[in-house]
Amino acid sequence: MNKSLAIELTNGIGSLESYITAANQVPMLTAEKERELAEQLREHGDLNAAREMVMSHLRFVVRVARGYSGYGLPQADLIQEGNIGLMKAVKRFDPDVNVRLVSFAVHWIRAEIHEYILKNWRIVKLATTKAQRKLFFNLRKNKKRLGWFNQGEIDAVAKDLNVSPEIVVEMEKRMSSRDASFDGYGDASEDDDFSPTPAGYLQDMSQEPASLVENQDWDTHRNQQLHTALQGLDERSQDILKQRWLTDSKTTLTELANKYNISAERIRQLENNAMKKMKASLTA
User: Fold this and answer.
1) Which long-range contacts (CB under 8 A, 24 or more apart) does 116-123 make?
2) Taking CA atoms, which of 64, 156, 194, 209 is between 20 and 30 Å from 115?
C-alpha cells in the first residue's frame, strides 16, 4: 500500500471527499490474501495484518454509511462509527468459517451506525426496547406516502416486523415529533406570533424572593400559634404531648403511665383530650 495514502487515511488529512477518494484507492484483498492476514492476526496478534484488512475495506464502510444519509447526521460521523464496527469485525473474524470478511463485517458496521443514529437523531432517545429499535429503521422504509398510516398499513407493518400494532402507532408518533427548545422562541404561527416554549410556563417559584419571605412568615406564624395553643394546656397535658409528639424518641404510653402513676389508658385519654384542645385553638 502506498505509504502517503495510508498516512492520509489514518490521520484524516483533508476533506471528507479526499478521504473517500483515498479509501477507494486502497486495493481490495484477494480471498487468499485475506485468509493469510486473518491467520496472522489470530495466531500471532499481527496488528499490521489487522490494519491492512481494515484499510482494504474502508470503501465498503463508506458505501454502507451512505445508505443512512437520510437521518440528517454528518456523513463523516457515520463513516467513523462504521469504521469502529469494521475494526470490531476484524478482531472477531475467523478465517476457518470460509466466509469473506465483507460478509461478516456488514453486521458490525451497521450495528455501530445504528447505535450512533439512535443516540444522536434526537435529544431524547426514541427507541429503547428491541421492538422499538427494529421499528425505527424499518418504519421509514415502509412509508409509501406522506402522512399518517391508516389502520390497514399499521396492521401490515406490525405483521411484517412481528410487533404489536400499538408499538407501531407509538413509534410513528415519536418519529413524527421533533425536539423543542426549552427557552428562546417557538415556531411562528400564521399571525406572526411565536408559540410559547416551556421556559415560559414551567416556572419554579420556590426560590422566588417574595415566595421565600411569605413562606418564612407563614412558618413563623404557625409556630407561634402552636406555642400559644400548647401554653393553654395544663402542665401534665403539655408534658404528655411533648413526650409523645415533639421529641425525636417517642415515649410510650406505659412509660408515661409509670411516670404519673396512672394507667396507660388514662394517658391515652389525656393525650386525645389535649389534641382536641390544640386543634380547636389552632382553628379558632
Assistant:
1) 116/73, 116/77, 116/78, 116/81, 117/68, 117/71, 117/73, 117/78, 120/73, 120/77, 121/71, 121/72, 121/73, 122/178, 122/179, 123/179
2) 156
Confirm if 115 and 88 have CB atoms less than 8 A apart: no
237 in Cβ contact with 274 (< 8 Å): yes
Rounded Cα gap, residues 258 and 269, in angstroms:
15
- Checking if the pLDDT of 4 tops 80, the result is no
80: helix, coil or strand?
A: helix
C-alpha cell at 46: 499481527
Q: Is the predicted pLDDT of residue 95 greater than 70, yes or no?
A: yes
Cell 469494521 -> residue? 86
| Cell (9 digits) for 104 | 461478516
- Residue listed under C-alpha cell 447526521: 73
Predicted confidence (pLDDT) per residue in 187-244, tens digit: 544 444 556 666 666 767 677 788 888 888 888 888 888 888 888 899 999 999 989 9
Tell me the domain boundaries of the chain: 1-121, 124-177, 212-283
Domain 212-283: which topology? Arc Repressor Mutant, subunit A (1.10.10)
